[in-house]
Design goal:
heterodimer, B: alpha+beta, three-stranded antiparallel sheet, 6 strands, elongated
Chain lengths: ~230, ~110
């Protein structure tokens, strides 16, 4: 018997495709974000409010993932930006191959911002790199404050946490400071923005975050071109 | 929840590696599973057994090495096992510590029989 060292990522194939996507985004100055949360935390509602507020000159596009139905794409398409639904047919996460396939007939040169709305699931999407610049996790006030402790992987890997449905705080037993503390235990220093897609609270700060990150993606492009 | 997909990716790696050893057969594959990667070792083991059962790959064992989360202190460089998500350095009390192990989802080795 002979033991051979292999030292390879289990998800090597996905990783290779994700890095190819990341490189294309980088070359074109595109910011790509990957929104992840449990089902019903408000990813689509947040995107509706985001697209509504987006400067019309922004060249944004959305890929939205679900197991079934075109419902989310239908909700998002009315804001005038290109939207495509990815129906996974049962798979509980998006992977880099699905993203690549759905981008084939879009001209990436015409985009500044690509928003990926992952399948509602806090577990599996955390393992699959989609080539994004940042993972963003949503936690809503109608869930448990201990979600970051129960699903540490995704809270650890996300750059930003959006605490959604913040307008419901007076009516639910959710303790926002405990939730933030739990998130910071898993991921010290993670940026957290409180938002409500119903009242609009916190959305300005979220939009500023997006603009700042887009500027950064563009700056990277210019420094490469120089 | 996605352990069967992970098991399938491991089996694909075995298939790729097997081509490089046409005279031998792979009997075991060793993987490293970090605490933070969101993969349950038992479910992975089960998924892998199901995939291999009644195929040409049998007998092929999967050995999982579980890698706990380890932090390194930014002040005193002390390395410690992070328990209960407490990031504080037990030696100097510093809160700014970085994760250096626990994110693995890697193939480590394979055993080939001549």
């Amino acid at each position: 018997m002979n033991r051979i060292a292999v030292e390879k990522k289990v998800l090597n194939e996905n990783q290779v495709l994700a890095e190819q996507l990341r490189e294309r985004y980088r070359q074109l100055g595109i910011l790509c974000i990957n929104l992840i949360s449990a089902p019903g935390s408000g990813k689509t509602a947040l995107l509706e409010r985001t697209l509504e507020r987006m400067d019309k000159g922004t060249r944004a596009a959305v890929l939205t993932g679900d197991l079934q139905t075109e419902n989310d794409a239908q909700r998002l398409v009315r804001f005038g930006f290109p939207v495509k639904q990815i129906t996974t047919g049962g798979t509980c996460h998006l992977d880099a191959k699905m993203i690549g396939r759905h981008l084939e007939d879009w001209k990436l040169e015409d985009l500044d911002l690509l928003i990926v709305e992952n399948v509602g699931n806090l577990v599996c999407p955390s393992s699959y790199d989609l080539g994004e610049d940042a993972k963003i996790v949503l936690l809503s006030t109608t869930e448990g404050e201990d979600k970051p402790l129960k699903y540490p992987s995704i809270f650890f890997k996300s750059e930003l946490m959006l605490l959604t449905k913040i307008d419901l705080l007076p009516y639910v037993p959710f303790k926002a400071d405990v939730a933030r503390e739990n998130a910071w235990r898993v991921h010290p220093g993670m940026e957290i923005i409180d938002v409500s897609s119903t009242t609009g609270e916190g959305l300005d700060r979220w939009m500023r975050w997006l603009v700042a990150r887009r500027t950064k993606a563009k700056a990277k492009l210019q420094s490469v071109g120089a | 929840m996605h352990e069967l997909g992970i098991a399938s990716s491991i089996l694909e790696c075995v298939q790729t590696e097997a081509k490089r050893h046409p005279d031998g057969r792979i009997t075991k594959v060793g993987v490293k599973i970090g605490e933070l990667c969101g993969v349950d070792p038992d479910a992975l083991q089960f998924g892998f057994e199901v995939l291999v059962k009644d195929t040409e790959w049998q007998p092929l064992a999967l050995e999982v090495e579980y890698i706990p989360r380890v932090q390194r202190c930014s002040q005193c460089a002390h390395e410690f096992r992070m328990a209960d998500f407490d990031p504080q350095c037990p030696r100097c009390g510093e809160f700014s510590t970085q994760c250096i192990r626990g994110e693995e989802l890697d193939i480590a080795y394979m055993e080939v029989e001549a």
